[in-house]
Specification:
The chain is mainly alpha-helical. It has a single domain, classed as ABC transporter involved in vitamin B12 uptake, BtuC. 72% of the residues lie in helices and 3% in strands. The chain has 11 helices and 2 strands. A two-stranded antiparallel ribbon has the order 1-2. Strand 1 and strand 2 form a beta hairpin. The longest helix has 32 residues.
Length: 297
């Protein structure tokens, strides 16, 4: 149980880039959870299950269409499929429960994780699935003399685009401003003639769409299997907590802390790499119990 002693500058930079690419997935999933938790006040445990369904849908759609085009079609249709599922969930059940206690909502969403887990098992079985990287992203680039996967480089560009898109949505669009107002005082928003129920539905669907997008993006990088929802939902909740509730940039910062400490842990102390992100979370909460950035809701 010794620290790695053969660390090079090139190896450190490569591992940091890997950490940043993982940050993209964590941020996309956590930002969706932050939207739902911030506006609707629903601790949606099933958010991780929707991420898993997004990955399986991406696999099935890409396999059906085949070729490199299949991946891009899956990258669009898989999150849309998850959004449709979430719309049925919200209109059929969640909209009747917004005034209930948080504990009941927590248990209710946990029940969905069991339902979705069985649904995935029935449709796709228990075997591992894998989605090939599209042809355009196959192979690696040489960075500091070490190989770096092209697909990971693609993820590095996706993260900031999603962050800017979410910032624009919440701060520069009518629905974003209404959602922020409804999060603070939903009765007052309803009193001026706005249908708060449909605003909540839109926010819930957007948040779950992001979970599906994260699943579709992660599909080419790891095995797609049952249980992949468990770790991501824990990480997403921790990222939301340390970043600041409803704060998009806080979610990005929290995801960076989580992704980078995980990668550095693998490089520095592989036997205990899994502990590094959680130790970082504990340290952050010791000094900033309300999160790194101010809650925006």
């Amino acid at each position: 149980m010794e620290f790695a002693s053969n660390i090079t500058f090139a190896g450190l930079c490569q591992q940091l880039l890997v950490g940043f690419s993982r940050t993209t997935i964590l941020f996309i999933v956590a930002s969706g959870l932050s939207l739902v938790l911030g506006v609707l006040r629903i601790p949606n445990i099933s958010h991780g299950s929707l991420y898993m369904i997004g990955a399986f849908l991406a696999y099935s759609i890409a396999t059906f269409f085949g070729g490199s085009g299949g991946f891009w079609i899956a990258l669009i249709l898989a999150p849309v499929g998850v959004a449709l599922i979430s719309f049925v969930m919200e209109r059929g059940l969640f909209r009747h429960l917004y005034e209930r206690e948080h504990l009941m909502l927590l248990l209710f969403t946990f029940a969905f994780t069991l339902v979705f887990g069985d649904m995935v098992k029935i449709i796709w079985g228990s075997d591992y699935r894998s989605l090939p990287v599209p042809d355009i992203f196959k192979g690696s680039l040489s960075i500091f003399g070490l190989p770096f996967p092209r697909y990971n480089l693609f993820l590095l560009f996706v993260g900031p685009l999603v962050a800017f898109g979410l910032w624009f949505l919440t701060n520069r669009t009518k629905i974003g401003k209404i959602a922020r107002a409804a999060a603070v005082d939903r009765e007052m928003v309803g009193a001026v003639g706005i249908n708060v129920s449909w605003v909540f539905a839109a926010v819930f669907v957007i948040g779950c769409f992001l979970a599906g997008l994260g699943g579709a993006l992660v599909a080419p990088t790891q095995n797609i299997t049952q249980g992949m929802d468990h770790s991501i939902i824990i990480e997403a909740f921790l990222i939301v907590i340390i970043g600041g509730l409803g704060n998009i940039w806080g979610a990005l910062l929290g995801a960076m802390i989580f992704g980078l400490t995980d990668s550095l842990g693998i490089l520095l102390w592989p036997q205990f790499a899994i502990l590094f992100p959680y130790v970082a979370v504990v340290i952050v909460l010791m000094f900033r119990p309300k999160g790194l950035l101010k809650s925006t809701w």
